[in-house]
Queue: 2 jobs
Job 1
Amino acid sequence: MAFVIDQIKLRHIQMPLVHFFQTSFGRTYARDIVLVEVISGGVSGWGEVTAGENPFYNEEWTGSVWPLLRDYVAPRVIGQEFQAASEVAARSAHIRGHLMARGGLEAACWDLEARLKGIPLYKAIGGGAIKEIACGVSIGIQDSVDQLLGKIETELNAGYRRIKMKIAPGWDVEVIRAVRARFPKVLLTADANSAYTLADWELLAALDEFDLMMIEQPLAHDEIIDHAELQAKLKTPICLDECIRSAHQAEQAIRLGAGKIINIKLGRVGGFTEAIKVHDVCRAHGIPVWCGGMLESGIGRAHNIALSTLPNFILPGDVSASKRYWKQEVITTPVEVSAHGTITVSEGIGFGYGIDLAFLDSISIRRETINKP
Ligand code: OSB
Ligand code: MG
């Protein structure tokens, strides 16, 4: 369905996390999130930019997103006629990197298209093969092993199907040993967020004894070749996160044997159009995928749920209940997870949840409207 973007609204919100989240690259207490609203004929589509507060997961951060969208992406899309949301990403393909900023706007256009058609977002992207999303949780580095064990117990009692724990040098082999001893049967994974190098391969190989479902992005954020070398030395499957930014890179990584699983994040690959391509490449090669998370508000969370309905999202993802992150949500009905660890996809129009505009306004610290010239 053709549309012209009349207006783009950027909004920077601040939301404290219920519990800090620590990875190998740092600790986060509160999120600073840029939301993108694209408006066509009075209908709004919403997207969330998944960049972090600092350029530590990748090169983007909350502060880089705003000028990139305002000065480089908005002028290329505003007033343009698009036949479909799938055409939007190509309009900013000349920009190097900044995929999360570009992806936030692209995802907003898919939501807009779904709303203009009066259908749920998951249908607009060609999803719906899966209607009950299997959920895992990602648990950050804690102040003590006891705290970690307590958190894992809480999440398992809540019904989550897979536990991912963050690891880093000094919080790895012995911590995983303690977790495995306490929870011998649980589906367990470890995410290093690029904290190791190939020189650490013996330490990583020592994790083989714990029967991890996968180890996520052990090596550098931009490294595929070293992951291939490492995978050849490990029994544990490697799952790639940071280093897969496109379907082409996914294809290269698969060809080299750099991993056996890929985590797809909407923002990291620049939006739905590329995420679907990554999904399709993996599916064609028999590589299972799962949906990663970036501590999203309800808007990004709802987009992740839509994405997770594509058929190759075989493994439990990092998309979990709103209440694990937020005291109050930006969507009118928080995302909930059933006692058997699933999210039921919403049949509502667009991303399928209402937006609490009054609450959004109350947590917005910066807003800017870009109009058609
Ligand atoms: O590597 O998956 C990651 C959070 C921030 C940055 C990177 C990652 C994560 C998570 C959290 O693991 C997943 C979530 O609960 O949203
Ligand atoms: Mg990860």
Job 2
Amino acid sequence: MSTPPRQKRLTPADILALKGNCPVVSLTAYTTPMARLLDPHCDFLLVGDSLGMVLYGMDTTVGVTMEMMIAHGQAVMRGVSRACVIIDMPFGSYQESKEQAFRSAARIMKETGCDGVKLEGGAEMAETVAFLVERGIPVLGHVGLMPQQVNTSGGYRSKGHSEKEADKIRRDARAIDEAGAFAIVIEGTVEPLARDISGSVSAATIGIGASPACDGQILVSDDMLGLFNDFKPRFVKHYAELAQVISKAAEDYAGEVRTRAFPGPEHTFQPRPKS
Ligand code: KIV
């Protein structure tokens, strides 16, 4: 199976051009079949490092590796024909220096064929973002609640409640914008702050737990599909209840196997009549 031709899919520049025109639609995707299902409806798909928690059951995203991101990035690329694809840079692959970030980002782009990378961080990452953009790598920034910093930032709590914290997030977004990011994810911030940032940066802002005034929205697909019974943060809306659907299907299957109702004659191969 080959990757569809590049020119048919949206680019980071197309995503930026939607700012002020039409809200950007984005979801996470980690596999080929899911990418195929989401592709017709989304402007960009994010191969998020949330896959560490969603697919691999990790407690945080800190343990996610380059190899995991590249393997899932390749899988998603095989499933898209319209959406732009952005891949998260995992923790430890870019924070050390701008040169390390370039090496990691270039590897992700070359080995997957994706359209750009995402990295978390504010003012402290601005020089790195500019370094990548100047060298041909489109960057999606990520400010506010930054899951890779969960060990130093006091956990998964919403941000920007104090004026000091709000000011820092504002400065972070401005720095990443000035560094040339085509878009910036704003995660888990108080609503007026996300609204304010969206109106003051030239990059497209992509909200998650942020504001309807952002230039677009993103959710983790598995969250919005209702695949987790025990996890529903305030910012997630369920557009389906797949956990129930899957449990019921598994229960029905188990019942039919135990009563020998499955497989039926239509599911078995009978010997061909002898000629
Ligand atoms: O890793 C991820 O899926 C993300 C989104 C939630 C924005 O960063």
